[in-house]
From TrEMBL:
Record's protein name: AAA1 protein
Residue ranges crossing the lipid bilayer per the database entry: 16-39, 51-73, 79-98
Keyword vocabulary terms for this entry: Membrane, Transmembrane, Transmembrane helix
Annotated GO biological process: D-alanine transmembrane transport; D-serine transmembrane transport
PANTHER family: AMINO ACID TRANSPORTER, ASC-TYPE AMINO ACID TRANSPORTER 1
Coiled coil regions, renumbered to chain: none
GO molecular function, a single term: neutral L-amino acid transmembrane transporter activity
Keyword Membrane appears in the UniProt entry: yes
Origin species: Tychaedon coryphoeus (Karoo scrub-robin)
InterPro entries membership: AminoAcid_Transporter
Length: 133
C-alpha cells in the first residue's frame, strides 16, 4: 500500500497499471505452477474441481511467453513490479514467521488490525457471538 501511494505521487496512472498487470501475471503463473506441483506431489488429496493437466500446462506456456515478452520489452517496469512484490517479504517475516514476538509488538499489530478494520468497515467474524446463540 505504501509503495502504491509513493508511485501514485511520483508517476502516472498508466505506469501503475503496468506495474500491477505484471504483478498479477506473475502471481497467476506461480499459482498455476503450485497447482501442477500439488497434483504431482499429492495426487490423492481431495479436490472439489479437477481439470485435465493439459489446461494448466498450456496456460503456463502462454504465461511464460507473455512474461518473457514483458521482461524483454519493459525491463524497468518488471523490475519495479518485482520490487513491489518483495516489499511484502519483511511484512511476512514480522507478521507470520516471527512467532515469539514481544507483547508490545503484538499490541501494535492488534491495534493496526483494529484501525484497518475500522477504516475499511470490515470485521473478522468471531466464534461464539451472540447472533449464533
Amino acid at each position: 500500500c505504501l509503495a502504491t501511494l509513493i508511485i501514485m505521487l511520483v508517476g502516472d496512472t498508466y505506469t501503475l497499471i503496468n506495474y500491477v498487470s505484471f504483478i498479477n501475471y506473475l502471481c497467476y503463473g506461480v499459482t498455476i505452477m503450485g497447482l501442477i506441483v500439488l497434483r504431482w506431489k499429492k495426487p490423492k488429496i481431495f479436490r472439489p474441481i479437477k481439470v485435465n493437466l493439459l489446461i494448466p500446462i498450456t496456460y503456463l506456456a502462454f504465461w511464460a511467453f507473455l512474461l518473457a515478452f514483458s521482461l524483454y520489452s519493459e525491463p524497468v517496469v518488471c523490475g519495479v513490479g518485482l520490487i513491489i512484490i518483495l516489499t511484502g517479504v519483511p511484512v511476512f517475516f514480522l507478521g507470520v514467521y516471527w512467532r515469539n514476538k514481544p507483547k508490545c509488538v503484538n499490541r501494535l499489530i492488534e491495534s493496526m488490525t483494529r484501525w484497518g478494520q475500522k477504516l475499511c468497515f470490515v470485521v473478522y467474524p468471531q466464534c461464539g457471538s451472540a447472533e449464533e446463540e
